[in-house]
């Protein structure tokens, strides 16, 4: 499950998965291209100019014909404010938008080229902020920011919900056997491991052995906890069959949450040993910090504990209520489709909520880092890519 498309698309990456150039944008804010032909210049009250001449023109708030949702474009930065939870929530809704899965190769190339034109100051006339933000959204969803390679569709963040929902449904199926429990936990951790690897911080090379180590650790921990809890529930004589069935439905949560922590720590253990890059206010790399790496892994691990809560806790509660209704009692074949819809809704809500808990590019005081890093910059704070 590890193949990744080899096609490359050049250009600087966006912040969607934490580009290194997150804060290195040097283009002037609030500027856009405008065709300055004679009629256009006269209409604006400006001097007549040569037809087809292109100029940079400041764009005032009053003169904006675009929706307020589309502020002046900034290359490599998010469209929504990242200091608030709501801003991060809206940002990650953009990142996981499944519509980007249907973007064609030609449309991707157009988006990348548009961002390159913006970067080099060669935009064609009439390009709007909305078009630039849309182009960056497409690139962020498909292209890895560090490797500039196309991410294999099932392992993109925008594909996490569509490809992960069938697995969640399988995890929550009632009356699981030992074989089915092992299968669904293995499949879930395999998918998680591949998503982790595809969206990793690739500023530094990581050996394949680390990926295999993290993958095996996550699978073994998830299967062991799930099977162990199921055995304990089966042997609990105090529970009625109905209570036993209800408890079994909640078994996947502790198994998945524990395995998610194991997965993150093992797969990103190299970051703890070597550190991760921290950047100053100008986007320059100050150094590699192991302390920043610890903060990044802790924030990511907390996210991975919160993420399965709504997905694996809400559906069992909702389904235990719905299964008592006359509709599902008289139509038992509808239970699986209804459960699938409930899981999809819970997944769609849980993912953006969980990954919005912390900013993608987290900030830390320089004084809290290693002395050599504090001495290497005058900035009071630096930022680092937390990773997803």
From TrEMBL:
Protein's membrane topology: Multi-pass membrane protein
InterPro entries: Mtc (IPR004686)
Keyword terms: Amino-acid transport, Membrane, Mitochondrion, Transmembrane, Transmembrane helix, Transport
Subcellular locations according to the entry: Mitochondrion membrane
Region described as Disordered: spans on this chain: 1-20, 38-67
Biased composition (Gly residues): 43-53
Transmembrane annotation, as ranges: 214-233, 245-266, 305-322, 334-355
One annotated Gene Ontology cellular component of this protein: mitochondrial inner membrane
Main location, first listed in the record: mitochondrion
GO terms for biological process, alphabetical: amino acid transport; mitochondrial transmembrane transport
Alphabetized GO MF terms: citrate transmembrane transporter activity; monoatomic ion transmembrane transporter activity
Recorded family membership: Belongs to the sideroflexin family.
Protein known as: Sidoreflexin
Source organism of the structure: Anas platyrhynchos platyrhynchos (Northern mallard)
Name of encoding gene: SFXN5
């Amino acid at each position: 499950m590890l193949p990744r498309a080899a096609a490359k698309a050049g250009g600087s990456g966006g912040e969607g998965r934490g580009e290194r150039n997150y804060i290195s944008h040097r283009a002037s804010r609030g500027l856009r291209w405008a065709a300055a032909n004679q009629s256009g210049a006269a209409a604006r009250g400006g001097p007549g100019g040569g037809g087809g001449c292109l100029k940079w023109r400041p764009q005032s708030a009053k003169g904006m014909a675009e929706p307020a949702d589309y502020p002046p474009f900034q290359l490599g930065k998010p469209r929504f404010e990242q200091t608030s939870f709501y801003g991060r929530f809206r940002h990650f809704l953009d990142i996981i938008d499944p519509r980007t899965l249907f973007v064609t190769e030609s449309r991707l190339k157009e988006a990348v080229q548009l961002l390159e034109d913006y970067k080099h100051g060669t935009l064609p006339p009439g390009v709007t902020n909305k078009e630039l933000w849309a182009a960056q959204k497409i690139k962020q969803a498909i292209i890895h920011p560090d490797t500039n390679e196309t991410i294999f569709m099932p392992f993109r963040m925008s594909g996490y919900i569509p490809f992960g929902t069938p697995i969640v449904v399988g995890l929550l199926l009632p009356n699981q056997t030992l074989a089915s429990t092992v299968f669904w936990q293995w499949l879930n951790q395999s998918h998680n491991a591949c998503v982790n690897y595809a969206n990793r911080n690739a500023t530094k090379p990581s050996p394949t052995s680390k990926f295999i180590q993290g993958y095996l650790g996550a699978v073994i921990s998830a299967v062991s906890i799930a099977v162990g809890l199921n055995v304990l529930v089966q042997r609990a004589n105090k529970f009625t069959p109905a209570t036993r069935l209800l408890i079994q439905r909640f078994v996947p949560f502790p198994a998945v949450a524990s395995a998610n922590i194991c997965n993150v720590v093992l797969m990103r253990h190299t970051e703890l040993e070597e550190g991760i890059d921290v950047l100053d206010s100008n986007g320059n790399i100050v150094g590699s910090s192991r302390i920043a790496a610890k903060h990044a892994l802790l924030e990511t691990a907390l996210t991975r504990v919160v993420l399965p809560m709504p997905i694996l806790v809400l559906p069992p509660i909702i389904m235990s209520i719905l299964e008592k209704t006359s509709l599902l009692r008289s139509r038992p074949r509808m239970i699986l489709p209804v459960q699938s819809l409930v899981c999809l809704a819970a997944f769609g809500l849980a993912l953006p909520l969980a990954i919005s808990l912390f900013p993608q590019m987290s900030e830390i005081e320089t004084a809290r880092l290693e002395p050599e890093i504090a001495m290497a910059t005058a900035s009071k704070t630096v930022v680092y890519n937390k990773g997803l």
